[in-house]
Amino acid sequence: MISVVSTVESVPRGTGTPAPSLYQRIRKVLTRDLLVTLALGQVLSLLICAIGLTSKYLANDFHANTPVFQTFLNYILLFLVYTTTLAVRQGEGNLLAILKQRWWKYMILSVIDIEANYLVLRAYQYTTLSSVQLLDCFVIPVVLLLSWFFLLVRYKAVHFVGTGLCLLGIGCMVGADVLLGRQQGLGEQKLFGDLLVLGGATLYGISNVCEEFIVKNLSRVEFLGMMGLFGSFFSGIQLAIMEHKELLRVSWDWKIGLLYVGFSAFMFGLYSFMPVVMKRTSATSVNLSLLTADLYSLFCGLFLFHYKFSGLYLLSFFIIILGVVLYSSSSTYVVQDPRVYKQFRNIGSQPSSELPPISPRVLEPAVIYTTLSPEQGDEFPVQVA
Question: How many CB atoms are closer than 10 A to CB 205?
Fold first, then answer.
């Protein structure tokens, strides 16, 4: 296995070089890649907004409380598109070859994903909308910690500042909900509902980190195909046990059928598009971008459900976008060989003769490892660019 270490260092500015203008600094931060990343994240948020609106119509207007059935339809679509694609593949990417190597891992991951969706959707029956919005942000620290320990991602101060701004924006949105009295979904067992949200957010964090690892190291089609295979199987079992009576109570007509079709299409689009964005960015960046989904739902609610408007909604939207910009403006450390990372950090050992020492006057380089060969047992020769 060969690892390439790329370093980006700050070149000291000459005394005669003029300081960059404010416009130049903004252009340096708002690069084309950053703007594309922001746009892709907001597409995911709009899909989640559409999913929430169709769920609200089903639950409130047609009294169809069928969260398991709704996700079951999505897994069936994933099975029909991606699992069948794996079945007709040849070689190591074939469905049978994948099942022989790691079937039990995808089985566990699919159960985690199913229960994450179920717990959060179920929580709306017991707790308030504000509590769900606030506690659902618990997925962000979960993703940060799991990425640190399992994906070996190392963050800079700007990443924590950006994350803090995004959480502050959610706090402004929840504060606006409280001031306007939007306490929808309050039940007698509020604590139970809050625990459901925390449990669902934790499972979402585990699922998202695993998804990032799979799409960056294996295949997007493999992830979606395995989720379709095991997700449709286990959600079908859960549907037969828990919601078969609820489905019989649904007053079926073309409007309800259209809402179910719309929900399934939006959910399928979210599952299909999220790995594309996650491969380009990270699980943390995606979850930060998704915080605007609740705001899009609120803006739609102003026209569809006659919600009251508050200036805090706009403030929270801009704070979240600013936080996402700050987080995405700087790259993270990705460490695959702890020995090399320790050497670059210059802690506990002296640099080897193969690498030039790092001057204390130069900013610490960003270390990014890219695997070029899957062969095992090779040493890790290091090249410094």
Answer: 25
Least confident of 103-117, 162-176, 184-198: 184-198
* Closest listed residue to residue 81, CA positions, set 184, 189, 223, 203: 223
Rounded Cα distance, 260 and 85, in Å: 25
pLDDT value of residue 22: 56
Q: Which two tokens stand for residue 217?
A: 């190291």
The pLDDT tens digits for 131-146 are: 777 778 889 999 999 9
Token pair 């959910």 is at which residue? 267
Residue predicted with more confidence, 233 or 362:
233
Structure letter (DSSP) for residue 350:
P
Neighbours of 228 (CB within 10 A): 26
Sequence-separated (6 or more) residues with CB below 8 Å from residue 21: none
Q: Where are the alpha helices (DSSP H) in the chain?
A: 22-29, 32-56, 67-78, 84-87, 95-123, 129-135, 139-150, 157-180, 190-217, 220-242, 244-249, 254-280, 283-289, 293-304, 311-328, 338-345
Q: Write down the pLDDT at residue 90.
A: 85
Is residue 275 within 8 A of residue 220, CB to CB? The reply is yes
CA distance 380 to 158: 30
Chain centroid offset of residue 5 CA: 27
Taking the C-alpha atoms of residue 173 and residue 38, their distance in angstroms, rounded to an integer, is: 20
**For residue 377, what pLDDT is reported?**
40
